[in-house]
Design goal:
The structure is a single chain. The chain is α+β, with helices and mostly antiparallel strands and 177 residues long. It has four helices and seven strands. The strands form two sheets. The chain has a four-stranded antiparallel sheet, with helices on both faces. A three-stranded antiparallel sheet has the order 5-7-6. Strand 6 and strand 7 form a beta hairpin. The relative contact order is 0.17.
């Protein structure tokens, strides 16, 4: 596996972000309550252009930070993640809230990138002063379960969402080394 680095997305990355989004088919398995949402690209589905989404991301500074996971060898975006600086905002249901959301582009899965991406964003959470984060994932998302456990996640419980009809597993994950 090539090394990854986390970078903040910018307007210069708009075309590659659009290519990343295009790799996720509309008929994919639903992993969030919002069927169009790609984890790590939270709220992108609400905007017509990448530029509009990036402007929204800027308005969330200090609350949520989005990162691109970029392969150092060729600069390709292999993943996205977002880090919520606190677990609950506004009308969030804290039981179903997650500090971190992430995805790996389908063409790059199975190469260990998710585990490394999560490790890197856990370092960012630690820098924010968070000693532990809550991460949820769909109970059937075996890849995500393995990624969380590989990074020290401790299973808390499973919850069923009445509105979404999804069952999610909740984990607490330490951020410190």
């Amino acid at each position: 596996m090539d090394l990854l680095k986390l970078l903040l997305p910018s307007v210069e990355d708009a075309e590659e972000i659009e290519q990343y989004r295009a790799e996720f088919p509309a008929d994919r398995e639903q992993v969030t309550a919002e069927p169009d949402r790609i984890p790590g690209l939270d709220y992108l589905e609400e905007y017509g252009t990448i530029r509009e989404w990036l402007e929204f991301c800027r308005t969330m500074e200090g609350k949520i930070t989005w990162y691109m996971s970029v392969r150092e060898s060729d600069g390709k975006i292999v993943g996205f993640c977002c880090l919520r600086h606190k677990l609950k905002y506004d009308d969030d249901d804290e039981d179903f809230a997650s500090h971190i959301g992430y995805s790996i582009r389908p063409s790059e899965r199975g190469k260990g990138y998710a585990k490394e991406q999560l490790r890197l964003v856990l370092d960012k959470a630690n820098e924010l002063g968070l000693s532990s984060v809550r991460i949820i994932c769909r109970d059937s998302n075996i890849g995500s379960v393995k990624t969380i456990l590989a990074n020290g996640g401790v299973f808390l419980d499973s919850l069923h969402g009445e509105e979404s009809s999804l069952t999610v597993n909740r984990y607490d994950v330490p951020t410190g080394k």
